[in-house]
Amino acid sequence: MRALRITLIVVVILGGLFVAADRIAVYMAESKAADKIKSSQGLTTTPNVSIKGFPFLTQVVGKELDEVDVGVDGLTTDAGDGRNVRVTELDAQLHNVRISGNFSSASADRATGSAHISYADLSQAAGPGITVGYDPSGTNKVKITGSLLGLSLTAHSQVTIVNGNTIRLHAESIPGGSIPQWEDKVREKADMERKIDGLPTGMRLDKVETSKDGIDVSVAGNNVQLTG
């Protein structure tokens, strides 16, 4: 019985050491991944990276991770026309992540997530003199206000996803005006498409929903390719 107790104590101690080593390894991997994301994306803050599943070391040996969660604040993406869109918050969950033989790249069987763009950041991306705000009059609508040729304008725009990577704002109707080609001039201000560039291959913008403090976008993908 004494020998059995000693054996159990040794097993518990070794198990505890393995758990400690495993947690240290996963912490180091998360920290390194976060630093790499920060440098590659030019972020001012370090993202949060969480590697799920236990034990981590056996996942590394098998070159497949159960789940990797990434949270990024303040990601700036190229929206075209020399303008950028700041994504206030981005959270992604990558499932069944397979790592290449030399650890230079990886792919995820499935990815889900969400992104939030504030109205302040959307207004910044819209251009000078344009303000984008919440519109309670309908589902997935925003209110566009600004000025044109010295006149104030207000338009109610529908928000949709185009081509899986672009957020489109399109005014359903244009307030009347006696100026020639008034509607075209207003739409130049009120209608816009802003591309969310830099999404990994296989990931797309899925759904969009407006709220009182901004636009919430869900992202999804299959066979998502992640380069080093």
Tell me what you see in this structure.
This is DUF2993 domain-containing protein. The protein has helices at 2-41, 56-62, 119-126, 182-190; strands spanning 48-52, 64-80, 83-99, 105-118, 131-134, 141-148, 151-162, 166-171, 192-195, 203-211, 214-227. The protein is α+β, with helices and mostly antiparallel strands. The strands form two sheets. It has a six-stranded antiparallel beta sheet. Strands 5-6-7-8-9 form a five-stranded antiparallel beta sheet. β6 (141-148) and β7 form a beta hairpin. The model has no long low-confidence stretch (mean pLDDT 79).
List the helices and strands and how they pair.
Blueprint: H1 2-41, E1 48-52, H2 56-62, E2 64-80, E3 83-99, E4 105-118, H3 119-126, E5 131-134, E6 141-148, E7 151-162, E8 166-171, H4 182-190, E9 192-195, E10 203-211, E11 214-227
Antiparallel strand pairs: 1-2, 2-3, 3-4, 4-11, 5-6, 6-7, 7-8, 8-9, 10-11
InterPro entries: DUF2993
Pfam families: LmeA
Protein name: DUF2993 domain-containing protein
